[in-house]
Amino acid sequence: MYEVVGVRFKKAGKIYYFDPDNLDLQKGQSVIVETSRGTEYGEIVVAPKQVSQEDIVSPLKKVIRKATKEDDKLVAENLRKEPEAFDICVQKIEKHNLPMKLIDVEYTFDKSKIIFYFTADGRVDFRELVKELAAIFRTRIELRQIGVRDEAKMLGGLGPCGRALCCGSFLGEFEPVSIKMAKEQSLSLNPTKISGICGRLMCCLKYEQSYYEEVSKYMPKINKEVMTPEGRGIVISCNALTKKVKTKVIQEDGTPEIFEFSICDIKKINGESIWRDAQDCHGRDEELVSSLDEPH
Q1: Cα 71 to Cα 21: distance, rounded to the nearest angstrom
Q2: What is the pLDDT of residues 44-78, one digit of tens each?
Q3: What is the DSSP letter of 100?
Q4: pLDDT reported for residue 281
Q5: How far apart are CA 227 and CA 233, in angstroms?
Q6: Model pTM score
Q7: What is the DSSP string of 195-235?
Q8: How would you classify residue 163: left for phi > 0, otherwise alpha for psi between -120 and 50, otherwise beta?
Q9: 93: Cβ contacts below 8 Å, ≥ 6 apart
């Protein structure tokens, strides 16, 4: 087992593990760490804890020290310089007529490098641009091409739900999202309705999928014959969020009627409860629904 702290360098960024090196560190503190791209300033978002070797990337780098007020001022100064660097780069891109869109600029903590993030439809020959930027800023220049999902994460915005983008507010990493998830969640397969502002499938399809997979184990299949409080019926639809089941029940006069019941009130034809724990159905329901409020 290894003792580690989790450090994040950007809001909603990926969490990296570091060796606390016997320092008295707590969640919320700012620290200076050594990374693959040099010395960096980050915030502890995971307090010191023990993890197995499988959960770390060797060699585990150490926390150099706690951040000081001077470090805070340096970071603030870098942030003030970034808009100016952005404007200069945009002017140079226009000058060279390059088919690229500048998204963001980032100074490394020690100012040893400036990273320019951009999007483009294909490869871009920016060698002359790098030379000009290096001459202006007199430091190392890196131009990094990113995808549309990273662009949305950096720029932020509001999703179709009206809330701040998941990727820009709490999702540390992008995970694969498939159209199969939309089908299992009974969503419209219209691309405009299941895509985020980045044009890709919405990230929320992924972190809500575990809820649907759990509930679907106990929801009856469509066209399945079940026993309802109104008699035998055929399942015509299921709502995993409300755990309601719509059934078609044939009345004594032969006319069909549609009823909606809680999954707790539906039984198999042999009398067994469909829900795994009918004694605690409603309590379990609240537990599962609450998982949607904790997508982290």
Answers
A1: 20
A2: 999 999 888 888 887 888 899 999 999 999 999 99
A3: -
A4: 55
A5: 6
A6: 0.74
A7: B-TTSSBPTHHHHTHHHHHHHHTTSPPTT-EEEETTEEEEE
A8: beta
A9: 100, 102, 129
